[in-house]
Amino acid sequence: MSRKPNRTEGQVETTGHVWDGIEELNNPLPRWWVWVFYATIVWGIWYTIAYPAWPLVNGATPGYLGQSTRADVAAEIAAVNERNASLNEALSTADLAALSADTSSELHGYAVSLGASVFRANCSQCHGAGAAGLQSAGYPSLLDDDWLWGGTVEDIAFTVTNGIRNEQSPDTRWVEMPAFGDMLSREEIAALVAHVRAISGQEHDAALVEEGALLFADNCASCHGESGEGTREMGAPTLNDAVWLYGGTPERIEETIRNARFGVMPAWARDYRGASGLDQAQINAVTVYVHQLGGGE
Prior knowledge:
Layout: E1 14-19, E2 22-25, H1 31-50, E3 55-56, E4 59-60, H2 69-83, H3 85-92, H4 96-101, H5 106-122, H6 124-127, H7 153-162, H8 186-199, H9 206-219, H10 221-224, H11 250-259, H12 270-273, H13 280-291
Antiparallel strand pairs: 1-2, 3-4
């Protein structure tokens, strides 16, 4: 219902809206509130002129004050880098083995702190915030001493710099596992699964182990070793322990044998990633950080 009733002089007008007999009065806003409201409009217009506000094709209007939060952040980063310039210079040329051993030095403490920051920004998305990895996706844990390509500081630095099976670095670590799904029968793959689970100390079908051992010797031992001890020079993982990159269930092992695995890690050096890559100090820092997590050699 919308009907303005007759009002006597001095009574507040209504808007004409009535709900269940309740009228909506048309009281004017307080004058101070109205002026504050007008002031916010004026302030808003001034703000869009003074500061970056209106979007353009390749950016936004800069504002006549020239304020830029990105420039502020860049200035703060530059100031921090300037304060740490001597440490970064020493870190970029440091002997990593000596630095990792000298845990009481200022440079080692700085490297671990900087490396933790670099790791969280660039590595934790795959390896996890705590570096425990993600088995379902084949991202290895960096906390144990089971290394695919070696766990010395030199090995870790090379892996960070050049990555694994990528198209960026010509020196990337590259060995490819063949997919045996088209080479072996279902029964042969089942026998291989039984053998791999047997050498890793897991429950297995004993009747298939002998055949699986022969198949392993013919097809797998050249990379993984005769007893499944792995070959670091080839990045072939150890198969006779309890550490699994993609999982050690019969289903996961069969999937690996049938379809193979092809894990990729980017090369982090700026030579291959440009400005988004890591400089030498950052590479050395994250190397020292990973090495001291518990599995470094």
